[in-house]
Each structure stands twice: as C-alpha cells, then as structure tokens.
Amino acid sequence: MPEIDFWYSIGSTYSFLSIMRLPDLASESDVSVRWRPFNVRTVMTEQNNIPFAGKPAKSAYMWRDIERRAAKYGIHANLPAPYPISDLALANQVALLGMGAGWGELFTRNLYRIWFEDGVEAGSETALSEALHRTEQDPLPVLTRAREPEAVRALEEETRAAVAAGVFGAPSFVVNGELFWGDDRLEDALSWAKVGHVV
Amino acid sequence: MPEIDFWYSIGSTYSFLSIMRLPDLASESDVSVRWRPFNVRTVMTEQNNIPFAGKPAKSAYMWRDIERRAAKYGIHANLPAPYPISDLALANQVALLGMGAGWGELFTRNLYRIWFEDGVEAGSETALSEALHRTEQDPLPVLTRAREPEAVRALEEETRAAVAAGVFGAPSFVVNGELFWGDDRLEDALSWAKVGHVV
C-alpha cells in the first residue's frame, strides 16, 4: 500500500483541516498515512518564516479561508480559535508519545476539537488534560512523561527529520521524497501516492 | 453576469498559473473577470510580508509546486524562471496602460511566456519590448508613457484600491467583497461568483 508521511504540528491552524479530513480520504484512497507531529515553531523560526504575527490582513484572511473551507468539507468549527498557542512543544510531545502508544491520532483530533470547537487554547494544561480524558488516557502520568527529557528529545529528533525531508511549514505531506505543503495539497499528495503525478 | 476582480502583479510567480488558466475557466463559467495589475511589492513591504527572500527551502518548494501544477493544467514552462524581477513597478504600469487600451491581458500573457518559457526576466527592457512587439504595440512610445507620472500614479492608486479590498498578496480574487488568495483558490472564487459559496 502506498505511504504518506503526514507532518503536522499542534499549533498550526491549517493542520486542523487535514487532521479532520485525513481519516476518510486515506481510507477511500487505500493509502497508508503515518502521522508525524513535529515542532513547526522551531522550523519556522530557523527559516525566518513568520506566517501571521504582525500581519493583520493575512491573519484575518486565514481565519475566513479556514471557515469557508471547513464549510465546504462539512467540518464544524467556531472561529477564530485562540492563536497562537502557548506550549506548542508540550502539545506535540504528548501527541508523539501517543503515536508510539496507539492513541496519538485520536488525541490529536480530540485536542483540535477542544481548540477549534470549544475555544480552549491547545497548548494549555486544561486543553491537554481534557483531550487526554476524551482519549481515555490518564492526564497526570502522560503529561509527566511528556515533559521528561526523552520526550523532549524525541520531538526534536522528529523535527530534524522533518527539516531533512524539506518540510518548512505545516501541514506537509511527503510521498516518495516528494513534498506537498498545505491542506490544499492533500489531494495532490494522495494522487502522487497512487499514480505518481498530480491529476 | 457575475464579476470577479483579478488582482495580480507581474513579478508574482503563482500569478502565472492564474494568468494562463483564467481565459478558459472564466468563459466556461460565464463569469466576467476584471484584470487589475497592482504593485504587490509595495503591499508586501508595507505588511512586513516576505514570501521567499532568504527562505531557500520554501523557494525550492515554490518552483517545484508550480512545475507540478503547470503539468496538471497542461501549461508549458521552463522552471525556475529568473526571480525576483527587477522593475516590478514599470512592468505593471505598462500592463495597466494596456488594460485601458484593450491590450493589457494579451500583453500580460505574452510577458509571462517570455519570463516563464524563454527565461527572460519580466522587468527588463528586453522582455517588456518583446512582449509589446508580440502584442502588436510599438514599445518605445508605450514605455515612455508607462514611465510618466500619470502612469506611476495610476498604479499607486490601483495598489491602494487592492489594499482597501483586503489584498495582501498576488494573485487574489475579489467577488462581492469576498477575498480569495492564491491560484489554488481560483475555483473557489468562481464558485462564489456563481452560487455564493464554495463547493
């Protein structure tokens, strides 16, 4: 089965659309998707890439665009959501732990719902604990582990792997070394995985 | 007939795709399109928005993405094209003059072909003169007029109108006050013009 690396970062607004769309799209396409949380903030800071801070026109557009696209895909959201999030690293360290333990995808979707539907900032203890509850994980031990040096290092390693794959923003999709950036390239990435070009 | 303002800037790479796709798409959709060249460099500088300078990973991706998308749409191109262009203001002052005289669209397409197919930088005298020739316009008087204060002011006014419409980058499409940014939102803009939402 063809495989896609789905590089996303909790804290990235457009990742919301991909996170909600991927399960159905991937199963329709018979493509296997590897969810890979990384620290997009580190990558963008290193690459001098500031997407929205200090850019009111572009920020206002981003929320409106996500609102229109969510409506198009039938995804529920109350926008704008709190942005930027506070502890981006911690949220993604939890997600990465979850990927190793089999609950990472569900945790990610639950956390984005808390952020984009309930309006609770995704890096906060409140949001992280509630998302873990909804994922049937005990928040206290998970958050403790997620703060340990091993979990910190694991996210840093994944972030370096993202950069090595050419990733400069989130969400990104990598298929056989071919990079696609943005939720609006998800269909192109699936097409690449299936037939080797963009249809 | 529904109407779209197509805000573009000679010098913008992704505008190439829209410039090549619009004639067919617009006539298929029964939508009337007003081509409005503006100075995207002024707008982005004012809004502290630096798309590609100093961002090698994002720049490399941009060319690869345009290449894949051009192939998808059956548009010929030799990439990467010289970037950034030198005299962005002059090129758009010529285009704006042409819009008033009825040859602006054809001039724009000819100039983009010279830039993206023949590899001649679009702000250069060579490219501008050749594009005017191919558009059956006499380069010398047109370039003289395009440098006069009236033409300079006209582009500045259009640029202010773009900002007033919420435009922060190129290409952008405005339909009944609704802004769409990027060639990948052209279909959404056409859909908005026809049915008032994104399908």
Automatic annotation (TrEMBL), chains A, B:
What terms describe the molecular function in GO for this protein? Answer: 2-hydroxychromene-2-carboxylate isomerase activity; glutathione peroxidase activity; glutathione transferase activity
Q: Which domain of life is it from?
A: Bacteria
Its top-level enzyme class, in one word, is: isomerase
Give the EC number.
5.99.1.4
The active site lies at: S12
A biological process from GO:
glutathione metabolic process
Q: Does the keyword Isomerase apply?
A: yes
Reactions catalysed, semicolon-separated, are:
2-hydroxychromene-2-carboxylate = (3E)-4-(2-hydroxyphenyl)-2-oxobut-3-enoate
Q: Keyword check for Isomerase, yes or no.
A: yes
The DSBA-like thioredoxin domain, residue ranges:
3-188
Pfam families in the cross-refs: DSBA
Q: Cite the entry's keywords alphabetically.
A: Isomerase
Protein family (similarity comment): Belongs to the GST superfamily. NadH family.
Name the PANTHER family for this protein.
GLUTATHIONE S-TRANSFERASE KAPPA, GLUTATHIONE S-TRANSFERASE KAPPA 1
Q: What is this protein called?
A: 2-hydroxychromene-2-carboxylate isomerase
